[in-house]
Amino acid sequence: MEGRHEIIFDRLVYSCVFEKHRGYEEFYPEHFLGFQLSGETHAFYANGNIVIPENTVVLVRKNQLIRTIKYPSKSGKYQFISITLDKETLQKYALENKIVVKNSYEGKQKLFFEPDDFLHNYFISLAPYINKKKEATPRLANLKIREAIELLLQSNPDFKNILFDFSAPYKIDLEKFMNRNYMFNVPLESFAKLTGRSLSGFKRDFIKTFNISPKQWLREKRLEEAYYLVRYKQQKPSDFYMDLGFENLSHFYFSFKQKFGMTTSEVR
């Protein structure tokens, strides 16, 4: 049975699958609030990984690279609701409520928690839109976003340092960042934004740092890691090629032999 991935309104997305599903890498430029209705989500990012169990709320900070694996519950169904907390709405809310953030949030990335009654009932209230029993007008959609902001701040006032931090990304250590995120198969524009650079600035700084173009470096780095996994960890390419950013297995095999002059079977 095929899964469902529906945009209920422009900032509310409902995902439903009936068997284990590996998602692709995704770049999240905005904060989003999610609720695990059933099953669980395994999320992988630069600093590690987390498991989001059933009946759990997760607040994902903006400008993240994340890969997920979706696991249905014992009943055979996976359901997840995500609602985007967009910058424009957050700025209006901060202006109306005179909220000013002077210090950025310094806490860990692990921002999932059991919902209180208010947050739980909030997500339950979205059911009519998911079931198509009610249509969300633009005005109602905006009200639901603002309601989510109110409930988040009520559950943890410190979240204001995440939601209302509108400072522009600053330039970060390019070499350190790329060595931690090379396995994410996303456009160069996403890497540029995450490192606080324009695309042209990213390419220029990249060549200064690595003496090679970003695309060439990514290919070499991923293949070197693949060689290590095959030669020393005895892993099968079919088990890891997507985790290293390769889109298909045949392309991986071709690239591997082109670089090392032998097949993965000959390396073992």
Molecular structure report:
GO terms for molecular function: DNA-binding transcription factor activity; sequence-specific DNA binding. The chain is of the alpha+beta class. The protein folds into two domains: 4-163, Jelly Rolls (Sandwich), CATH 2.60.120.810; 174-267, Homeodomain-like (Arc Repressor Mutant, subunit A). Helices cover 41% and strands 22% of the residues. It is built from twelve helices and eleven strands. The protein has helices spanning 87-96, 117-124, 127-130, 138-155, 160-163, 174-181, 188-194, 199-210, 214-231, 237-240, 249-260, 264-267, and strands spanning 4-9, 12-17, 21-22, 26-28, 31-38, 40-45, 48-52, 57-60, 64-71, 78-85, 112-113. It has a six-stranded antiparallel beta sheet. Strands 3, 4, 6, 7 and 9 form a five-stranded antiparallel beta sheet that branches. A hairpin with a 2-residue loop joins strand 6 and strand 7 (48-52). Helix 7 crosses helix 8 (199-210). The model has no long low-confidence stretch (mean pLDDT 89).
